[in-house]
Amino acid sequence: MIHITLNNGLTMPQLGFGVWKVPDEEATPAVEKALETGYRSIDTAKVYGNEVGVGKAIAKRNIPREELFITTKVWNADHGYENTLKAFDASLERLGLDYVDLYLIHWPMPKFDQYVETYRALEKLYADGRVKAIGVCNFDIEHLERILKECDVVPVINQVEYHPYLQQKELKEFCDQHQIKLEAYSPLMNGRDILHDELIKELAEQYGKTPAQIILRWHLQSGVIVIPKSVTPSRIEENINVFDFELNESDMGKIAELDKNLRINNKPSEFHNK
Questions:
Q1: Quick check: is 116 in a domain?
Q2: Residue 11 lies in a domain
Q3: What was the pLDDT predicted at 190?
Q4: How confident is the model at residue 227 (pLDDT cuts 50, 70, 90)?
């Protein structure tokens, strides 16, 4: 496993395990399998409805807490200072933990304009030592600029949709300039187009790997934190088996040319669902 050092000195695995859209009862065996396979970073959220299942898996595997990196997120309906503090307490209780390693704002929801106030609640949790690091998800440059201007703690992470067809180069450059790590969700496009791309298939054959492994390796070599999701035991194993090979510079360049600015999830500036 490769570890990344965040801007506050905390380290986290560069490859983690996501549980988006995994029902609570399925989250427990999936996370157990992930932990057994070697994953130590688990990414959940209140809105996923599976914090309880994730917590059960953590308790069952009995891995020393300091070896784990657990992320959860405050949902849109809980924006605002006091609401966020309450939402965090509830998440912690569902997970059965004393602290989380990373707490994120799930969406900026600019229409309601409460994300700065919400982030200040995250700063309070961080100052109190109840979270080891704080960050955001789905923030565009304009949202990050307000956080940097109006708040004290620089986010450690901006978790966004990121894959070879959506490389978000301008956003990544901005994050790099401010020591904010980009974290990729939907890195395999939720099993869609990118896995069937001709170049990706050619590279998979060339390296003796699967298309998914080629794509995940590309993320790692791009310096991006990546959290693939699967409930299939064989794929959970496949997705972590990406540390025994390296894409050469020429092939990294070829994948960089696949960018289509193709988004399969919501646009941050337009998503306001509570």
A1: yes
A2: yes
A3: 79
A4: very high
Whether 48 is catalytic is: yes
- For residue 28, the domain's CATH number is 3.20.20.100
Domain span at 140: 3-191+219-244
pLDDT tens-digit series, residues 66-95: 999 999 999 999 999 999 999 999 999 999
Radius of gyration of the chain (CA): 18
Q: Give the relative orientation of helices 141-150 and 169-177 as an angle to the nearest 10 degrees.
A: 20
Taking the C-alpha atoms of residue 39 and residue 21, their distance in angstroms, rounded to an integer, is: 19
Which one from 48, 115, 126, 185 is the annotated catalytic residue? 48
Q: Is residue 210 in a domain?
A: no
Residue 203 resides in a domain: no
Cβ neighbours around 24 below 10 Å, total = 16
pTM of model > 0.90: yes
Buried residues in 233-265 as b, exposed as e (16+ CB within 10 A): eebbebbbebeeeebeeebeebbeebeeebbee
Q: How many domains does the chain have?
A: 1
